[in-house]
Amino acid sequence: MEPGEALRVLEAARAGGLEAIAAAGTLEELEAAKVAVLGRKAPFTEVQRSLGSFGEDDRRRIGRVANEVRGALQAALEERRAELARIEEERLLRADAVDVTLPGRRPRSGSLHPLTIVERDIVEIFTRMGYRVAEGPEVEDDWHNFEALNIPPDHPARTMKDSLYIDVDGLLLRTETSAVQIRTLESQPPPVYVVAPGRTYRREAVDATHLSVFHQVEGLAVDEGLSFADMKGTLEAFARAMFGERRRVRLNPDYFPFVEPGAQVAVSCFVCDGAGCATCGNGWIELLGAGMVHPRVLENCGVDSERYTGFAFGMGIERVAMVRYGVSDMRLFVEGDVRFLEQFQGAA
Ligand SMILES: [Zn+2]
Q: What's the 268 CA to ligand 1 centre distance in angstroms?
């Protein structure tokens, strides 16, 4: 290569290189431009490689120009690289930007299960009256579930309730929360005022009004001088708190082994106010069973039945929820259908 040609190649490399660098629109394009102007096969590099073939003066002159050209190209590369990085960052920021003018998406919120709402309400009404919450195991023994409740082995009540027995002798899934009455009386002396909400189990064919796993709230009051009138007044206060101030209760004689006398308690219908409608039929809604605690039950728990009297009541939470919300099929409570459950959002 002639020295004159080498100088022309260098100037062309400078001009063409600066142009290519300025034209690079991305960091990738810039990298390609760098290879083209300063890479192993670039004309600029060829000139450098041939410097040794020139005489000393030419070599010095051409070498100086080559250094200038490389410096100019490297400076231009750096400048363009910084510029492209800034542009890229701005692009990313714009892509990530939140558009505050878009309408919001409302998150779906959960809600309490209707049975939970009803259970909490029942419990709250009684705790306001001074009752405390008692609990017992769902797997019970024969004593607490039957015998202590005045239901001896040959009693027809045992066949009336189709119990679910465990593979351990004498154990079963409790058929009612009444077992908690016994556990409470065994563990503390009167006065006793408790409500016991919980799950109960029976071998039932499941239909619109029966479940094999259901919920009850049991109530027990044992004190000196408690009478049938106290029971009626308590249940009336409950019915009013639950279903409205104008409710009345009606008691019809009924039989449960662990109370004497026993009663079926009905509440005047809160839909028709007792006139009769589709919800109630005859103006009354049967809500729960109740009665004065049988003296033998008190004695079974070591409570002096001469000194203390008491009353007990039990109600099905599903039943109360059906009445309250106008639900005609009990199975809806356990099927987990969101379309059913979300209707209770905000209910209380
Ligand atoms: Zn009615």
A: 8
